[in-house]
Amino acid sequence: MNKKELSFALTTPLYYVNDLPHIGSAYTTMAADVLARFERLLGHSVLLVTGTDEHGQKIQRTAESKGLAPQSFCDEMSVGFVSLWELLNVQYDRFIRTTDHRHEAIVKEFFQRLWNTGDIYLGQQKGWYCVSCEEFKEERELLDEHRCPLHPNKQVEWRDEENYFFRLSKYQSQLQALYESKPDFIQPSSRRNEVKSFVNSGLQDFSISRVNLEWGIPLPVDPKHTIYVWFDALLGYVTALLEPDQEPTLENAIAKWFPINLHLIGKDILRFHTVYWPAMLISAGLPLPERVFVHGFLTKDGQKMGKSLGNTLDPISLIKCYGADAVRYYFLKEIEFGKDGDFNKSRFIEKLNADLANDLGNLLNRTLNMVKKYCGGNVPQITNDNIPFDHPLKGIGLRLGEQVKNAYETLAFNQACENILSLVQACNKFIDDQAPWSLYKQGRQEAVELVLYTVLESVRLAAYLLSPVIPDISSDIYQQLGFGINFNDQIQTSANAPFEIHSCWGVLSSQQKLGAPHPIFKRIEISEND
Ligand code: MSP
What span, in angstroms and rounded, lies between the C-alpha atoms of 413 and 82? Predict the structure, then answer.
């Protein structure tokens, strides 16, 4: 395998800084972190890119409305993203801000390449512009009174101005060939079909510069113009690949991590990533990303979230109240990644109590207490060979690592969690059926030990495979089982808990010194306000 096959570069969108991060931005970022953590467990070298999109009319106007210079406004707002990712326990490798001076150099060099191929020309742009989307809209897409379908409380604005255009139309057949030859380029397939029919209906060149807008990167060939915010932002993915002290050239940026393996995005920014972006890269003579995965939108209590509706969900207060693991678990387990999903407070509490406090937490706690009572607090002296293949837990455990790997790799996070939880639930049933307390009373010590060992080993395996989603809880479980492993420590985890060993059944050994049992997730009491 070459180096690129063992490495994995993935991105979140670069978030607009016009507002504080919302649950939608947190959703993509936590999914990206889960996948990055899983890839690291596999022993791959991973680069997780996130950051902020800071130019354009929307940001300039918001800064003006607050009486701030755009740069100071962006400096202030981007900190909010950094601190939310810390709170959410996101281990990103690069945080790119599009106002980083190195980014300007990359954008200008890239622009120059397209200019040299003759793919950029000056023209007249007439059309309806949605500042919130930072995108021209077709008249037929609009709601009445020229309102944007994605921002129904905002009217689009008429523009008739000189802009530079990118010859997108020239790439129609190459894009069509791409979607055919690489069916996995856009996932899920429903999104691929959407893009295919959009491209089949004919592509128009799009404008990549603005006049009368100062807050952007000046066009190298005509500084009266600034570069269109989306053209600039997509290139943030490239700038982010530079090593921290490297000279900002395209050659340096693409040397190690390019092409990017995976872009994670929401459904509203599909065209930019699957039509405009690949065409820009083809024009620049650069290789294309391997995959773009599109997730759905989150609603609250079945309703679209929005400030005007007054039903936004603040990720910071949710994490402060329930912890990062709880929030990560709910969104990844309860929502199929790729489909729309809903947040409802009572369901959130119910799920966390059922899965984390009861099924997983109580299981570990009661098993450790029984080990204390019936086995002197030591891991029973059982080796894997003593456990028959048709043992109900071993049977599940032997297949689980592979199933869960497959689920993570296809971004079926809910499936991964469900598979793991089914082992945990099987353990609870197994204990109830076997009743080790009765076996103990009957003096059947060996049988007691077999039950307790197989349950503890199952909990270990579940904790390991859940560690990308709930790293703190998994670390706590591992420590109670006597492993000195903290899943937030990448170096220690890859050295001492590699996937090829720890994802298999039968790792717990009688040499382990068990830690003191304590609850891994405190049951949430439902208050009047919930
Ligand atoms: N700045 C652009 C991205 C440039 S990438 C080179 C942008 N930023 S954004 O902050 O408006 O949106 C970022 C992401 O949040 C998008 O993927 C969008 O789909 C996602 N979400 C916005 N609202 C959302 C929900 N209600 N639910 C889930 N994700 C949502 O677009």
Answer: 24
